[in-house]
Amino acid sequence: MLVLSRKRDESxxxxxxxxxxxxxxxxxxxxxxxxxxxxxxVYRKEVxxxxxxxxxxxxxxxxxxxxxxxxxxxxRKDKGKEEPEGSSSGDA
Length: 92
Description:
alpha+beta, three-stranded antiparallel sheet, 3 strands, 22% strand
């Protein structure tokens, strides 16, 4: 781990297009400002870890889960075909 010291309004560059600036230091809290391209996702670490856990759980979903979803979608599609052509609800 690289450890750098910075004062308020001083910055650190990561590559050519990511800048981290110390905005405020209050007690043990440091506020940082980040400038990065929109194509780069920036998350607090605890949020990033939660996203990773959700992605792992989603990747573990069984084929049975997908089969149930597909079956429900087919039933929904078939139910829409049951209405005779030319009839529309709400006509008087």
